[in-house]
Write a structure and sequence with these properties.
Layout: H1 2-26, E1 29-37, E2 48-52, H2 67-75, H3 79-86, E3 91-96, E4 106-113, E5 119-125, E6 132-140, E7 148-157, E8 190-191, H4 203-206, E9 213-219
Antiparallel strand pairs: 1-4, 1-9, 2-3, 2-5, 5-6, 6-7, 7-8, 7-9
């Protein structure tokens, strides 16, 4: 009888844990993602925020950029990248931020996730470069309501254009030249070495370091 009671108790405990986990997964977890521009002069294009399965990457370092990521890195275009994320069965959802983020300013994006085990990745472009992207990868969503986590984002060369730094190849003002081919690039995503000072860009305005952004993730529900 005692053995039966012990087995029954264990079964009820396991069932209770499983039920609690299912309830947690179906709860609405809402997060505010704040992008902070830490550069002295580089505008950020509208960021893409993706919620995805743990262990899955939407930006593959040391690999060739996807066509959608290449479009974002060259000109800040997000449509094709979002389409790729939509067809990726490891990506739960993606959201595009509303507008540019100027130096010293912030931009908020709200995103939903129904499982705190999911991860979050943010990607944006340094708009006065050939193909520099700011990436905050695999950020944790295991937060209590009201709790925040702060991360520094890294800067990468998407490897899809040559770093000419010529105004003829730069989409942002004062150049205003999007959709112009600037060569084939290095062919893989790697850490960016910063401004090379080989073209028209100005170091006092356009120079940047590795950590160009701060990302704050706050659970608001």
């Amino acid at each position: 009888m005692k053995l039966f009671t012990s087995i029954l108790s264990i079964g009820l405990l396991v069932a209770g844990i499983a039920r609690a986990e299912r309830q947690q997964e179906t709860q609405k977890h809402l997060y505010k993602v704040t992008l902070v521009n830490l550069t002295k002069g580089q505008p950020f294009t509208p960021p893409v925020v993706a919620v995805h399965a743990p262990g899955h990457s939407v930006v593959h370092l040391a690999h060739e950029a996807s066509p959608g990521l290449a479009a974002l890195a060259k000109d800040g275009a997000t449509d094709l990248f979002q389409e790729e994320l939509e067809y990726d069965n490891k990506v739960v959802r993606s959201v595009v931020g509303d507008g540019f983020t100027m130096p010293g300013l912030t931009l908020d994006v709200t995103v939903e996730a129904n499982n705190p085990r999911y991860k979050l990745t943010l990607v944006t472009m340094l708009a006065r470069t050939n193909d520099a992207i700011v990436v905050a990868k695999d950020l944790s969503l295991k937060l209590r309501p009201g709790q925040k986590a702060v991360y520094l984002a890294n800067t990468y060369d998407a490897g899809v254009e040559d770093n000419t730094e010529l105004c003829a190849h730069i989409p942002a003002p004062p150049c205003n030249n999007p959709n112009v081919d600037a060569g084939i690039g290095e062919g893989f995503i790697r850490p960016h070495e910063g401004l090379l000072q080989v073209g028209d860009l100005l170091p006092e305005r356009d120079a940047f370091a590795n950590n160009t952004a701060k990302v704050i993730v706050e659970r608001i529900q």
